[in-house]
Amino acid sequence: MPSAQDIQTYMTGAWRLMMGKPEAVRLFDLSADGFWNSFYAIVVAVPALTVGWASFAGDFAVGASGRFGIVFLLGVIDLATWALPLVVLALVAKPLGVGDRFVAYVVASNWGSALLIWLMLPATLVRLLAPGAEDLAALLSLLAFLVTMALSWRLTNAVIDRGAGLATGVFTLMLALSIGVLLTLQALFGLDALPPA
Questions:
Q1: Which of 2, 47, 102, 182 would give a disulfide with 6, using CB separation of 3.0 to 4.6 Å?
Q2: Minimum mean pLDDT among 52-56, 96-100, 159-163: which range?
Q3: Is the Cβ–Cβ distance between 51 and 121 less than 8 Å?
Q4: CA distance 7 to 151
Q5: C-alpha dihedral over 189, 182, 97, 26, to 10 degrees?
Q6: Torsion over CA of 66, 71, 75 and 76, rounded to 10 degrees?
Q7: What is the dihedral angle through the alpha carbons of 183, 189, 195, 197, rounded to the nearest 10 degrees?
Q8: pLDDT 10s digits, 23-63
């Protein structure tokens, strides 16, 4: 796993890309080791993700063991939602004209995703800790979603560095794949059929 200093550098690089600074890609390790090590960003994101899984599991009328099972399934789903779109992108990157940017995109988006998940934590905490404040939690979640989408697009645009049109195409593809994997696996595991609390 990368050192704490390296993780801080990578998070800083992701933030700078989100602020529209393409040169920040130099802050990442784009070697083969750096590529694979960037998936440790999932580990960095797990504490924040776990809060969201616990919050979601609380929405269903199941016992404690059932909630643990839901949290486990949500972890599997989020892992697949994170990784599978990148596998698809690996297959289509060259035809899309971004083959030479694929490694940089994966590394930057992995660390950027970890950063964005932590940025969404306050909205998740409101939902978890203040169940009576559903309207506030919904508003914060919507705002967090819109902000993270904008920042994710900006990161994509900065990393691809080939114009907004191509960046928008890659961003849209990755978003559609992520949503597709998420909804498919939720239905496959029966999470959409659980009784509400």
A1: 2
A2: 52-56
A3: yes
A4: 19
A5: -110
A6: 10
A7: -80
A8: 999 999 999 999 999 999 999 999 999 998 888 877 776 77
